[in-house]
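Below is a filled-in request sheet from our internal design queue. Each sheet records the structural input a requester submitted and the sequence that came back. We keep these sheets so that new team members can see what a complete request looks like end to end.

REQUESTER: design group, bay 2
PRIORITY: normal
MODE: inverse folding
CHAIN LENGTH: 150
BACKBONE (tokenized):
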């Protein structure tokens, strides 16, 4: 394990999943795992985490890039089918956690700031952290939709 992997929060989530201890885990794809977001400021918020510790999308082999994008689209469709949002937002920055991962943000007409980026509310995310029963319920709802796609 490299120093960057040892201090990587995404790698920590992958390790928990590998050990069967990640309560947010929804599904394993070839290149990634799909997880419920730790907060639900945007109901249905979830993430797609690359299994390997890679910092940049352009560092991935072209086939992995294509496969990861296909996985992102399947995960997104599961969120759409579960929550019926007005719009979907995706982001892959890696500035804080330098490990390829996608944030999947459902957006709703009821959000008065729906035309702005979802990070505008990031200071409020911690107040919308979810407990284990809510995590399990969301995970099951999304998995039910996902299973119909696979």
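RETURNED SEQUENCE:
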């Amino acid at each position: 394990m490299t120093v960057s992997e040892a201090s990587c929060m995404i790698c920590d989530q992958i390790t928990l999943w590998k050990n069967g201890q990640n309560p947010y885990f929804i599904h394993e794809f070839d290149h990634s795992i799909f997880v419920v977001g730790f907060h639900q400021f945007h109901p249905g918020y979830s993430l797609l985490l690359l299994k390997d510790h890679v910092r940049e999308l352009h560092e991935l082999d072209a086939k992995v890039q294509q496969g990861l994008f296909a996985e992102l689209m399947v995960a997104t469709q599961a969120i759409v089918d579960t929550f019926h949002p007005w719009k979907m937002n995706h982001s892959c920055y890696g500035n804080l956690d330098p490990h390829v991962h996608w944030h999947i943000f459902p957006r709703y007409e009821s959000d008065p700031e729906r035309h702005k980026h979802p990070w505008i509310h990031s200071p409020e995310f911690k107040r919308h952290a979810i407990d284990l029963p809510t995590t399990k319920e969301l995970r099951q709802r999304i998995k039910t939709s996902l299973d119909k796609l696979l």
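SHEET NOTES:
- The longest strand covers residues 101-107.
- The two ends are 33 Å apart (CA to CA).
FILED BY: M.R.
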